[in-house]
Amino acid sequence: MPVDGSLRLLLPELVVALTGVLALSAGLVSRRAHVPGFISLAGLALAGFFLATEVAGWTAQLWSGTVLVDGFSTVFKAIFLGVAALVVLVSLDYLEHHRLPAGEFFLLVLLATVGMMFMAGSLNLLTIYLGLECLALASYALAGFLRHNDRSTEAAVKYVLIGAISSGIILFGMSLLFGVAGSVHLADVAAALASASSLQPALLAGMVFLIAGFGVKMAVVPFHMWAPDVYHGSPAPVAAFLIAASEAAAFAAALRIFIVGLPALQEHWRSAFILLSVLTMTIGNVAAITQTNMRRMLAYSAVAQAGYLLVGLAVGTERAVAAMIYYMVAYAFATVGAFAVVMLLGKYYPNEEIADFRGLSRRSPLFASALAVFMLSFIGIPPTAGFFGKFYLFQAAVAEGFTWLALVMVLNSVISIPYYWGVVQAMYLRDGAASDPLPAPGGLRWATAIGFGATLLLGLFPDQAVQLVSAVHVVPTLLAGGS
Predict the structure, then answer these.
(1) Does any domain span residue 61?
(2) pTM for this one?
């Protein structure tokens, strides 16, 4: 349906940005985190309402493709809004416990969310980069939000240094594409490459720079070394946000750039992503086995999960993209839910060691059962959502003739069993030093319950969930000749 440059298609982004300003203002007036927190939740809910009522179903380009509205961007925006809402929930008690400025925190979370929404909703390299920088700058500040904590400061410094380098690499890669194609619009880049008589070295160099730059953002091997330190040192809600949403935004942008803009180079970038996928899932799982700290284990787990998602990016079919989106949603719910349990234990055991989870089944049965389900989903045990996410990626890989890559996924799922099972074993088969019940704040209870319910529901009704995203196309119908 044609749109006459209507700004109502940008209502979700505008509402989220305005909500951030309101949350900051409320934080200056009230010292309690709940006031700006509830404002943030209301704003995210309103943005979700506009996304469902004003944006869903439209396919349109605003300002010559600078902003794109289609099914792909709408689904990813819904993911970002949902993860942001869960992060706000788990942050309420955390901010008050650590006496952190809630208004500033929620402003940064919401600005990062706006950046992610523009990354997924554009066909213009410059707009994607501006969204990336909006996300990155807010994330740097969030990583160092515990200003009097040396570990948080170290995480922020490492994140800034690595993030700035990777942003520069991405920008340089984009500049090479512009130099070859003469445009920053992905459709024009694809057309220029399709009509080129020969493959230019500058083009291959641009592709390599983009793979390396986005490899850092997606935390894939060998560009992952920043991730464990940043996820371990950042405030726990920030780590959950970066793993569940920031990496998803990087995958969304990479899907757009490589599938829409560089289909002529698919043979080259597919081989690179297959190699990175195998390395990432294998090294991530092997490194996670040796971890004794819960957050570092989840960090290396995030690296391994990025390897599974790279299978979908490497295959590059619509079926693979649908499987990727399903898996991202399942992983996001499980990740935020797992970090909610980590935050509950972190109030009493600041070191967040896996050994601290001993006896949790007796101290907090509901949280222990939820965390057990999250761990099973990470492994890929039915009937959790994680199993079907990996199964659909497996199917997509086999359908394109990459049976050996699918078998590598299965092998790595087996490798991951010991460290996930170690957490379940500690909770149910080991006695802890204390046995008194652990009181849980309302925000953590709600976030854990939502993650628990979504992980099971997506696993019990996987076909219905995949059908909802099966019509999502990376290449919008505007480019395919539709309207």
Answers:
(1) yes
(2) 0.91
- Residue 193's Cβ-side half-sphere holds a number of Cα atoms within 13 Å equal to 29
- pLDDT tens by residue, 129-188: 999 999 999 999 999 888 888 888 888 999 999 999 999 999 999 999 998 888 888 888
Q: In the chain, how many domains are there?
A: 1
CA distance 382 to 330: 13
Element (H, E) at 137: helix 125-143
Token pair in block for residue 34: 């709940």
* Whether the Cβ atoms of residue 380 and residue 421 lie closer than 8 Å to each other: no
Among all chains, which residue has been given the structure tokens 């969304």? 252
Neighbour count for residue 147 (Cβ, 10 Å): 10
Please, which residues have CB within 8 angstroms of residue 429's CB and are 6 or more apart in sequence?
none
Token pair listed for 475: 């290449």
Question: What is the Cα–Cα distance from 480 to 483, expressed in whole angstroms?
Answer: 9
Tell me if 476 is assigned to some domain: no
* Mean predicted lDDT score pLDDT of the chain: 88
Residue 363 pLDDT > 90: no
Residue 69 in 3-state DSSP? strand
Can you spell out the DSSP letters for 298-336? HHHHHHHHHHHHHHHHHH-SHHHHHHHHHHHHHHHHHHH
Cα 406 to Cα 100: distance, rounded to the nearest angstrom: 45
Could you give the residue ranges of the DSSP H alpha helices within 51-122?
Answer: 71-98, 102-120
User: Could you tell me if residue 454 is inside a domain?
Assistant: yes
**In-domain check, residue 47:** yes
Domain containing 391 equals 8-470
5-43 in b/e form (b: 16+ CB < 10 A) is eeeebbbbbebbbebbebbbebbeeeeebbbbbebbbeb
Give the containing element (helix H, strand E) for 60. strand 60-62
Task: Name residue, tokens 């039915």.
Answer: 382
How far apart, in whole angstroms, are the C-alpha atoms of residue 70 and residue 475?
Answer: 9
Residue with tokens 């990583």: 143
Work out the widest C-alpha separation in the chain, in whole angstroms. 73
Burial grade of 106 (CB within 10 A; 0-12, 13-18, 19 or more): buried
Provide the terminal-to-terminal Cα distance of the chain, rounded to the nearest Å. 6
